[in-house]
Amino acid sequence: MSVDVLKEASFEPDFKGAEICPSPNFGERRNGYTPDALILHYTGMETGQSAQDWLCAPESEVSCHYLVHEDGRIVQMVREADRAWHAGRGTWQGRDDVNSWSIGIEIANAGHPKGLPEFPEIQVDAVLKLGRDICRRHGISQNRVLAHSDIAPGRKVDPGERFPWERLARAGLGQFVAISPVSGGRVLGPEDDGPAVQALQRLLKRYGYNIEVNGVYDGQTQTVVREFQRHFRPLEVSGLADATTCIILRKLLYNSTVIDSSP
Ligand SMILES: [Zn+2]
Question: CA torsion 148→190→251→259, rounded to 10°?
């Protein structure tokens, strides 16, 4: 690629203060979709710079709108108006082609293979500022600030159970229910079927997860519960639905004591 072509591909940042590193890996949003969800990822690579190089390499065929480095630097790679290639196969509230209706932020972090390193404060602050600005400009509601693992359960686990969702929600990005775990109560798991399992599946589906409501605590149910926990009950990422998990899910749906900055 010549230097002229690279210049051609540059653009004005949608978020003030973002550096620009244009990625060739994008297209037009399909079916007239505009962004109405924010998907958070971790890069899962050794360094932020190697992730940046990969997301901008034509042969990777992946990209994102923004990459947030460990030191808080924000790099925009694809215009928000365009369809970045960050989500792959996934579904939320019955809609697939997540890339067409979302904005994707990659957060530099080596991820599960490296034991889930802590996200530095300065990096989380940058994600907050960027995420709040995106949600404000596009009118994205707080219950549509999602993990990659929410929209692709069984395939993706990022940004992982160490990601500080509670802190984000307290500062006005996304939803979180902060309750002390309750002891006792029924735990639903792989041996179970019947109305209680069906009710749980129905609630997960209503919140947005892609799950078949069949009354059987099958593999897909275990997977979806585990991914729900990774986001909303990070101390119990087991795939077993304990009472606390079920309470959190109900509160998210019925909006009582949810940390949520939506008006
Ligand atoms: Zn991801």
Answer: -40
Please pick, among 106, 118, 227, 236, the residue that the annotation labels catalytic: 106
Token pair 């947030």: residue: 68
- H helices then E strands: how many in the chain? 8, 8
Please indicate, yes or no, whether residues 81 and 186 belong to a single structural domain of this protein: no
**How much distance in Å is there from the Cα of 166 to the middle of ligand 1?**
19
CATH of the domain at 231: 1.10.101.10
Residues 6+ apart with CB under 8 A from 99: 29, 83, 84, 85, 86, 87, 88
125 shares its domain with 235: no
**How far, in Å, from the CA of 149 to the mean position of ligand 1?**
7
192-198: long-range pairs with CB below 8 Å, 24+: 192/217, 193/217, 197/221
Give residue 64 CA to ligand 1 midpoint distance, Å: 9
CB neighbour burial string for 23-43, b if at least 16 within 10 angstroms, e if fewer: bbbbeebeeebebebbbbbbb
Structural domain of 108:
3-170
Q: Which pLDDT value is given to residue 221?
A: 98
For tokens 């190089």, name the residue. Answer: 53
Q: 225: CA distance to ligand 1 center in Å?
A: 18
Whether residue 61 is found in the same domain as residue 131: yes
Which pLDDT tens digit goes with each residue over 47-100? 999 999 999 999 999 999 999 999 999 999 999 999 999 999 999 999 999 999
Q: Is 106 a catalytic residue?
A: yes
Cα-to-centroid distance, 86 and ligand 1 (Å): 7
pLDDT tens-digit map of 188-222: 999 899 999 999 999 999 999 999 999 999 999 99
